[in-house]
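> call design_seq(struct)
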């Protein structure tokens, strides 16, 4: 049962990094990809249909960890509380910048919201890098490496979604960086000592049953979103 629970945790963690890592990376590169107000709004339209659905994977990761590895949840949150506080702050600030941007038609307002989006995205990337760095190598030094990887991941996503001048500025390979993120998740999982942190068999069975029921709906919704918005963005969206 521990192997099953570990596989589920790795699945949702990798899903979050691969899917949400793309919109985090686009947010990090927003000043580079979009040189003026109209271009930046078009760049944000590339992630508009995806970023809320992608965040569900982080919620699911937290749910699996709390249900199947209560000891691991405590250890990670306590030992890396600074990184998790930064992650939550970055998440809130980034999402607030995205949602508020189109609420007021003023250059100063939109510039401020763009700053929130960029700062929050970088905070998210560095916080994720700090946690993965501690797990993989016992040092926070790889945090900038993770941030750079997510920036490239966002650039690869932008190459798929954008057109015109912003497309010409995008650099990265989405499949390649996705593979690296999945490999990083697997390596981090192998480094974690989850045996002492796992819940009892009954709790793991409940988590596994819940995932078996909900995962098909999550995958179907994700597939529908990607199919519906598979075409390139040619103009501003709702953000």
């Amino acid at each position: 049962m521990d192997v099953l629970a570990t596989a589920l945790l790795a699945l949702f963690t990798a899903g979050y990094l691969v899917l949400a890592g793309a919109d985090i990376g686009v947010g990090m590169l927003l000043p580079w990809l979009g040189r003026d107000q109209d271009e930046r709004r078009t760049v944000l339209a590339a992630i508009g249909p995806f970023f809320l659905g992608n965040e569900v994977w982080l919620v699911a990761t937290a749910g699996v960890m709390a249900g199947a590895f209560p000891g691991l949840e405590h250890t990670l949150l306590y030992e890396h509380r600074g990184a998790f506080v930064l992650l939550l702050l970055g998440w809130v600030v980034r999402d607030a910048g995205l949602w508020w941007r189109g609420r007021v038609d003023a250059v100063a307002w939109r510039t401020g919201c763009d700053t929130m989006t960029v700062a929050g995205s970088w905070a998210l990337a560095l916080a994720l890098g700090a946690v993965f760095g501690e797990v993989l190598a016992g040092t926070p030094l790889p945090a900038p490496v993770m941030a750079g990887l997510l920036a490239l991941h966002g650039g690869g996503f932008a190459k798929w979604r954008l057109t015109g001048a912003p497309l010409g500025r995008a650099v990265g390979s989405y499949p390649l960086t996705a593979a690296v993120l999945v490999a990083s998740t697997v390596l981090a999982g192998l480094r974690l000592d989850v045996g002492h942190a796992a819940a009892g068999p009954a709790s793991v069975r409940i988590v596994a049953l819940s995932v078996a029921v909900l995962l098909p709906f999550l995958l179907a919704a994700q597939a529908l979103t990607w199919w519906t918005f598979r075409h390139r963005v040619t103009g501003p969206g709702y953000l």
